[in-house]
Amino acid sequence: MKFILNCIHITFFIAIFSCGSNEKAQHNFVVFSPDSLIVLHVGQSSDSAINSLEYSVFADGKEVVKPSHLGVITDAKNEERWTISAIDSSTFDETWESVLGKSKKISNRYNEKKLTLTSTDGKSMFLSFRAYDDGVAFRYSWPGKSDSTSIKILDEQTTFTIPGNPRVTALCFPNYTSSHETNYTVAPLNDFVVDTLIDLPALFEYDKNLFVAITEANLYDYPGMYLSKNSEGALLTKLSPLPLGNGVKAVIKGSHHSPWRVIMIGKTPGVLIESNIILNLSEPNVIEDVSWITPQKTTWHWWNNTVIPANASFTRGMNFETMKYYIDFAAQYGISCHSLTDVDSDSWYTSPKDTYPLPGPGTDVTKPNPKLRMDELLAYAKSKNVKLRLWVHWKSLEPQLEEAFTLYEKWGIEGLMVDYMDRDDQEMVNFYHKVMESAARHKLTIQFHGAYKPTGLRRTYPNLVTTEAVLNLEFLKWSDRCTPQHNVNAAFTRMLAGPLDYHMGGFNSVSPEKFVARQNRPMVMGTRSHILAMYVVFETYLQMLCDAPEAYINKPGFSFITTVPSTWDETKVLNASVGDYLIIARRHGESWYVGALNNTEPRIVEYSLSFLPEGRYTVEKYADPDKKNADPNEVIMTNNEISSTELQQIKMAGGGGFVMKLTKK
User: 122: number of CA atoms within 13 Å, CB side?
Assistant: First the structure.
């Protein structure tokens, strides 16, 4: 690919002169990972007509990214030629603790080189390259001054030239307006259609010993990133455009940087799932007192269509009596939260039905639906030790953000689901940060729906407890698209970016041939054990119990989902085959929980518990029955003992799985 110049679109060029250090004289340099197995090469393009900078990546001697271009297109009126005026090298090694996470203690080790670039007219720019043991990352930075003029970013020229023809698992979209909710395309890279937007993270399977994912980290005041294959097979960076920008992707002023462009690398897919590279590349926690940020479970009456008992003495609706019924259920079974949304387009806050969920005339997120008797409901929930969460459309929230959050804090609201953004341009990215900053001040946790992928913001604001950005079990209300196969695919791709909200807990499992989409207490595909395993396999710090109370009471597996933790001290992938199955072990305190998701093919899988301290362990296990045509809601529950040295074997049904809790004797 060659850079294209005209009088107003300019790509920066980096000419490397033979002066100063040996690295400059050699026209290239390398950055090694701490274990020296990953190497990032940076040097002058082999195309002498371009004279630009390019990079390539190797892992354990294998080429991961072929020489690929670096560059940013701005609105500069004159051609700017850049030279490298300095190269700084550094190493970094720290261990930090997450507030909520898949690991409590996180190691952050990398080697870095930072290039200072100087243009002919005295401007400066930086390029930073980092190498970790589980991947590499790079970003562009502008030093800026308080009186500096703005720079318009028209696009990036960052490319990823992938060797060979690896199998890719990714989401594909026709345009940038998206809730990132569709099924995965799984195909060789050569089969991907030219110019189609490829969402991130995108997973690449090179061979049985090399797995790569491309994504981004530390997205702030900049547009979201996609990939698009060109006619030559290279993957180009595409930035989400400003809604009214006339082709401008971002406007930056003062000191600024792009997000990190991240290439995750592992010998197994489990290395990518265990990785914390996205958090390590993100800004540290800015909330001084985090004692109020705790993992939660919540009922979610919208998913089951707000089912109430047939003999109820009250009328179903967005009213005090219906919400009291759900609060009573939560209180009885130790579910910490109940979430308010709507019933039949009748919202918890003032909003006209004829425009709902979009805001219409008179919409006011500070005025509760009078049928809720909000003061009385808040007092009742508090008396039952159940916290309330609120759903809100972002367009309704934005004009009242500070006023609303001040009120919600006064009410004692635990947090909010902010929904329907469906964009990741610079303006929307900034809205996310505005929400998180205000929510942190008012001690509110946030879950984003209709959202873009996580990029590490939850390290900076650990009150960001989960994000959707995935086609999940809510789709079973109107389609058959959320299959066990899709569940498995999401675990290998979307989950690499961070916590995913998946509308878990449907307790009406049916076989695929018997599935019917419906609004009232939806069916789910996948066995009961498959559903239970989601609470361990899927990373999220706000676990939903989406089904109706009557679906859970006295049903097998219900006690497990009311007690399973939702934040973890340690995570290990025990066995995994991309798109087929995944077995994950997560530690909370002294106990380990193991969960497995299987696709539609029945299989027998082995896994080892040798990572555990030697000894005997008591096991509480929920698994698929070992018989043909079993009821998918049937669960085989066992309690026994095993040794950490014994190789384990499990048989999973099609669409099945298993989950177990291990406690050392």
Answer: 0
